[in-house]
Write a structure and sequence with these properties.
alpha+beta; single chain; 14% strand; three-stranded antiparallel beta sheet; 2 domains
Length: 488
């Protein structure tokens, strides 16, 4: 990306804490009354109204330089696909710009109360998946950037995503403000409610889709919220069998992953691919290592499957260019399929603005953060480190499809985005309450709607900045300084 250079300014890092929850994680050891008092005192030092503040500073890091910096550690031939996907719309750009927003959020006011952050809590990173008990649960579903940090950062990324998506769809300012305020109100009210119950109750709290919670069921009108209704009701169709129908064919009597370059490339057809015997030997070592990170009962279950085939698969928007694979396994007794995704985990975009991860393996960081924030996690969630694909990399492993479903943002009505935003707000509060000081945060947020007003104002201002950044990317593409591959 020629024509742009210069040292990237980095905000001063937050003092490393002993864990989420507050300064050095100590506030959760206080009595509930003292934690509530702390939250109110923090509101005096960092008033709610300050969360409305956003304007890019003169020394703001160039977002395109930050994106170029990320590209240096990614697979070069896939970078044009990433830029092509980010160039589709202002919202798609925003999805891929987690690092630029992390740099921006580091300069914004925060209360000093830390939680385990998702790190990329935009509206499309929430969805439906199957719990181990085979219930459909609504939850966060992307944790590549998870790390401890100020709870406000996740909240503001969610709010900005709703505002930007609303603009992309041509929603009126009134609708957009209502959607953002409703989501933030859902977060505030949920946090205050969770501050009044036991930690065990917080841990068991979740949005079960079958009984979607009385507060949301009345809003899920299939005619007014068709995209949301479809996401919630059809997730069960997304499983390994459906993945086989889409991604596999029979070749010489064996089930094989299709060759659909550049998105899906079987390992034996990759440039410079090693022979099949060496492939099987190398991947077998990876699987043995990953298997040790599973709980004993899940290891027993996994041992009922045999590895069948492997392919590289391009996924997501912001993740494009990181090393990602899909592996097909078949059950010994009946040949039933199991698809696992093996996805590279690099350092969280948050780490340079907070503190370095406490674990050396970023796959383990992702898994630990996911298990801490989700109500229930994939039974095959695990991690590994390998030099399998040219250079040592960290990976996390999960099922490719396990009743997973996310909303079609393009097909959303304003009413649909309103209810989706409220579900996201509730879920984010529950995720933060598991790791942070929910009592102090609830007291900080207070009873009034001042928080909703402030964050809605932030979201509007930040959307202006993000749209400017998006236009800058389009200009770079148009001028030929950035190569973007479209339609892939």
């Amino acid at each position: 990306m020629s024509g742009r250079s210069g040292e990237v300014a980095r905000p001063e890092p937050i003092e490393p804490s002993a864990g989420p929850g507050g300064p050095k994680g100590a506030s959760r050891r206080l009595a509930a009354s003292e934690r509530a008092r702390l939250g109110k005192l923090l509101r005096r030092s960092v008033p709610i109204a300050q969360h409305a503040e956003w304007s890019p500073s003169a020394d703001r890091p160039d977002p395109l330089v930050l994106l170029e910096e990320q590209a240096q550690s990614r697979i070069p031939e896939l970078i044009p696909i990433r830029y092509g996907r980010m160039s589709v719309s202002a919202f798609s750009y925003f999805r891929g710009a987690a690092l630029p927003m992390a740099a921006d959020l580091a300069s914004t006011p925060n209360s000093g109360l830390d939680v385990q952050l998702c790190g990329d809590a935009h509206m499309s990173n929430f969805g439906v998946f199957g719990s181990p008990e085979r219930n459909l649960i609504f939850d966060l579903n992307d944790f590549d950037e998870t790390a401890p940090g100020p709870w406000e950062w996740d909240v503001k990324r969610l709010a900005a995503s709703l505002e930007i998506a609303g603009r992309d769809h041509g929603y009126s300012r009134k609708w957009r403000t209502q959607i953002v305020r409703a989501s933030m109100g859902s977060y505030r009210q949920a946090m205050r409610e969770l501050s009044k119950v036991s930690m065990m109750s917080v841990w068991y709290a979740h949005l079960n889709v079958e009984a979607i919670l009385p507060r949301f069921s009345s809003l899920l009108d299939p005619k007014r919220t068709p995209s949301v209704w479809k996401a919630l009701t059809k997730a069960r169709a997304h499983d390994s069998h459906q993945a086989v129908d889409k991604l596999c064919h029979v070749e010489d009597g064996e089930l094989r992953i299709v060759h659909d370059p550049p998105l899906v490339v079987p390992v034996e057809q990759m440039e410079g691919a090693i022979d099949s015997a060496s492939t099987a030997e190398a991947f077998d070592a990876i699987i043995r290592s990953y298997r040790r990170t599973l709980q004993p009962d899940r290891r027993h279950l996994f041992d009922n499957y045999t590895f069948a085939h492997l392919a590289r698969k391009v996924v997501g928007v912001g993740s494009v260019g990181t090393d990602a694979w899909i592996a097909l396994f078949l059950a010994h007794e009946d040949g039933a399929p199991l698809f696992l995704q093996i996805k590279e985990a690099q350092a969280s975009v948050l780490e340079r603005f907070t503190s370095k991860s406490r674990v050396s393996n970023h796959g383990q960081r992702v898994v630990a953060g996911q298990r801490l924030m989700q109500a229930a996690s994939d039974i095959f969630l695990g991690w590994d480190r390998s030099d399998w694909a040219g250079g040592e990399r960290d990976y996390y492993v999960r099922q490719l499809r396990d009743w997973k479903g996310s909303v079609d943002v393009d097909g959303m009505t304003p009413a649909g985005m309103d209810v989706w935003g409220q579900m996201c707000g509730w879920t984010l509060a529950r995720a933060h309450a598991r790791s942070g000081d929910r009592i102090a945060i609830g007291a900080y947020l207070g009873k009034s709607e001042a928080f909703e007003d402030a964050v809605a104002a932030f979201a509007s201002s930040y959307a202006d900045t993000s749209e400017t950044d998006y236009r800058a990317l389009l200009e770079e593409v148009e001028q030929g300084r950035v190569t973007a591959t479209y339609g892939i």
